What does this fold into?
Amino acid sequence: MCTTCGCDDKDNKTTFHLHLDHEHEHHDHDHEHTHDHFHPHHHGHDHNHHQSKTITVEKDILSKNQLLAERNRGYFEAKNILALNIISSPGSGKTTLLEKTIKALNHASVFVIEGDQQTSNDADRIEKAGAPAIQINTGNGCHLDAQMISTAYKKLEVAENSTLFIENIGNLVCPSLFDLGEQFRIVMMSVTEGDDKPAKYPTAFLYAQVCIINKIDLLPYVDFSMEKAKEYARVVNPKIRFFEISAKTLEGFDKWISWLKKPE
Amino acid sequence: MHELSIAMSILDIVKDYAEKENATEVTEIEIELGSLSGVVSESLVFALEMACKNTISEKAEIKIIEIKAEAKCKHCNQIFELENYFAPCPECKNSGYEVLRGKELQVKSLKIEQ
It folds into this structure.
């Protein structure tokens, strides 16, 4: 599947940077070329009998991604890997959440797939926090897809019986449509973004099982109604489970960590 | 702007079917698009027109069948058009419903030349 997102597509290649050891001269630059272009070749000379025909297709457009996602999910289940796909706007605190979570889990077997358009800054941060990480740079791509995850977890050599966090591209719109094969999807918002986030971006909340509301240490300084935010999210998704946390002060972190140890 | 990525997936499907049928040209691509699908019709058409260039679908007409979302009220069973996720039931004014349709994102049919 092509991951270009509207802009110039010439230099837009998805790259994977592996962060397994602690040296910084190991940036793999694997370029994924997934652009299949069909080139019809008209070599015939006597095609005078053109026939028009209507073909019924009725095929889901995302079915290829869905198929790959199911393959990923099967692999994760077989290896007892808990895969979590984290979606949020840029700057809501996904990487900080992961840094603190890795520490709280006491460096237990945790692996991270980091998605960003550019730079390996986030994977570097995760590596410092103590977990092996791989950075996917999508170029101009606005979301991760199941194929990228399949490539990434193989390169990362995710161990059996481990937890795999997938930090999606900071974007509440596009990643919502792409199943990666995760067992749980986590949508994250922070109190500085406003309590109407679920009303503005309902699709992101529709397919998530968990909603983390971050930066609650800033509640006294912002106009954010926790009840309103939850109400909006529940209209779209009545079963969604909330964790109110501050990844900075670790307030509310215990409940999140307990859930991670026994997610349901 | 995930529409270009969606457009490429559409062309993958079109290519598969066109090859199977030994098509020389695809003249029409019909797509079903639900109002809750998360895909913007205008952006998708724009992306498809770009992505179709130099392919078998270069001259294809893009037809979008827009499907309005429909929901069934959990309180009074009224079936109503769901304009957005936060609209209450027009009959009993309660919220809480089951979405019946509106999430479609499908290649419906193709017209080809053989």
Q: What stands out?
A: The longest strand of chain B covers residues 25-34. The radius of gyration of chain B is 18 Å. The first helix of chain B runs from residue 3 to 20.
